[in-house]
Amino acid sequence: MCGIAGIVNLAGGAPEPTRVARMNTVQAHRGPDGEGLYAEGPVVFGHRRLAIVDLSERGAQPMTLEDVGLTVTYNGEVYNHVELRAELEASGVSFRTDSDTEVVLRAYAAWGVDAFSRFNGMWALAIHDARAQQLVLARDRFGIKPLYLARRGDELLFASEIKALLVAEPDLRAIDEVTLASFLAYGVQDDAPRTFFVGVEPLRSGTVRTYDLRSGTHSSRGIWSYALEEARERYDFERPAETLRELLADAVRLRLRSDVPVGTCLSGGLDSSSVVALAARHGPVRTFTATYPDRGLDEGPYAQAVVERYGCEARRIAPRPGPQLVSLLDRIGWFHDEPCLRPGMITQYFVMASAQGQVSVLLDGQGGDELLLGYASYAVPYLRTLAQEALQHPLDWDLKLKFWRDGRGLLGQPSASNLGSGSFWRLALEGVIRRLRRSAPQLAPSLQRHLAARGAQAPLAGANRIDAALYRDLTELSIPALLHHEDRTSMAFSIEARVPFLDHRVVEFALALDYREKVQGGLMKSVLRDAMRELLPASVVNRPDKLGYPTPVGRWLLEDAANVKEALLDGFAGRGLIARDQVEAAWAAHERGQGDPWLLYRWLSTELWLARFIDRPPVLHPPVVGDLLEAGRSASLEP
Fold first, then answer.
1. Are 515 and 464 in contact (CB under 8 A)?
2. 204 with 295, same domain?
3. CATH code for the domain in which residue 533 is found
4. Are 271 and 499 in contact (CB under 8 A)?
5. pLDDT above 90 for 546
6. Which of 60, 203, 268, 624 has the fewest CB atoms within 10 Å distance of its CB?
7. Do 261 and 361 touch, CB atoms closer than 8 A?
8. CATH number for the domain including 22?
9. How does DSSP assign 409-424, residue by residue?
């Protein structure tokens, strides 16, 4: 895991290396173990290194292999580098390092852009092919690792984080109003091909873009697309629980490869607990957990049950920002470069803080809910799909019985939302009542007109309603935002986060699995429950509720009320994005215990982003926040 940056002059001029050096500096948190610059003709690459595999200087970057004329600056890990190295060596290729970086270069030299389809891992990289006079940019299948681009005249700039582009080209500090409108209205984040900054785009996930440095033209191609029939031929669906367990176990095994200490995040949920159980097959496991005493949010007993089952070395914290919440969010926002939708990333931030200095790699459970029907929000589209199928087969009484059983279980099961915790039905009813009692805040007309400009990806061909929803969450809505949070939050503490559920084999199998296999008797993610039943405590396997990094943001907003009110009422309300009276009414409702804390959090995050990145130029180093981070790092050890 590292930070990469670069400037390429597509007209043949030589970029100024000091600009890339500044890009390196602002991304120093991504790579505290070294930095490097490469300048050759129209290309300047920068790199900040977090050493994970081959800790020697031989693994430093940018890495150049003179014998093949290739130079790379690379962020990520190719987990199957051992197998790829053996394949290349068998064909006569010699290696000079033990790093996966050299495997990436040698693989590209041997197979060209087809090499990326052979990689199992996460990556964002730039390769300068001096002989062919080409620049190659590539990003992993699901966009686990970030890569942002900007074009200014003849120059192409790229970096792991947007702030690195801003320090090299300050004129990029302009709001993309389409993105801002979508965020404020719908809570949409990482809505490729746009960002919150005009002229800054993410390289789409699963894309290789090649620039001809002689003509300045470029072409793109994908390295992954989901094909239902191919997946059904590739994997064993006769025994789905066993197949899922085998695929996930191998994904965990590969992601334990490291020359530095590895740990796991453990929330107490099914996904992170499964990762711990499978990692424990390979040796002792260190876990990092955040819990809260708030009613309906405490997952501590579940996490403790897993810790005791596997004898984990556990570190457990109970974050409480108190009157430093706004200052903390300002610091977090500096790492994220954009407003943040989900309060859970505050909890995630403290978990990463507690792991700093203990491990350099953390495995996490992101992706399981989107692939295996883990959210309560999937209940209605699941039941609608099932009902539609039952109508198409009027004599299938087993299907009708399944609809009745799953419907009764899903709609009555414990759930959680920004309104609190309770049954799905109760939360849905409370949400309707609250919407009837007050009108939803309206965007300013200047922003409202931009909502129609927001595009959407093409639907998944041949998919039913629920499978299409899962695919869209994977590629467009939920997962891109969660991966953004995962990357920035972990890298804030120079930690590499790895996500076994997003191994492409697990993804392909889960997407192709019959949606009815994912819910049994009203319990979601039933296939994962069956897969892990013998490996996890019954309390974890059978728990019906889904919390997902629960964070008491409503209480926290009140504990820092003075600073929150200043930011919302003196700052955000005066920008004209939402009418002042609506912002004031929303805060007053929250003080009475009737408000929507997630909405207030979204507005607060927006205000802090505008003040940090738009009102003034970005600084090279993050703001300091009291002793909160030290408190997180010195968390108590659980027995």
1. yes
2. no
3. 3.40.50.620
4. no
5. no
6. 624
7. yes
8. 3.60.20.10
9. HHHHSEEEETTEEEEH
Mean pLDDT of the chain: 91
Q: 260 lies in a domain?
A: yes
- Beta bridge pairs of residue 63: 72
- Where a domain ends, among 200, 222, 244? 222
**In contact, 51 and 59? CB cutoff 8 Å:** yes
Tokens of 212: 């001809």
Would the pTM of this model clear 0.85, i.e. be above it?
yes
Contact 361, 263 (CB under 8 A): yes
CB proximity list for 2: less than 8 A, separation 6 or greater: 30, 31, 47, 48, 49, 50, 61, 74, 75, 76, 160
Given a cut of 50, is residue 138 above it in pLDDT?
A: yes
Task: Please tell me whether residues 53 and 103 are part of one structural domain.
Answer: yes
**Pair 490, 348 in one domain:** yes
Q: Which residues, in sequence order, are CB contacts of 493 under 8 Å at separation 6+?
A: 29, 352, 353, 355, 356
Residue 224 CB neighbours (<10 A): 15
Q: Answer yes or no: do 79 and 198 share one domain.
A: yes
Q: Which of 511, 541, 571 is the last residue of a domain?
A: 541
Task: Examine the domain organization and report whether 232 and 158 are in the same domain.
Answer: no
Tell me, what's the pLDDT at 414?
Answer: 64
Look up the domain containing 15 and give its range.
2-222
423: region left, alpha or beta (phi > 0 left; psi from -120 to 50 alpha): beta
pLDDT tens string 77-112: 999 999 999 999 999 999 999 999 999 999 999 999
* Structural domain count, the chain: 2
Distance between CA 570 and CA 64 in Å, rounded? 52
For 392, phi then psi, to 5°, come to -75, -20
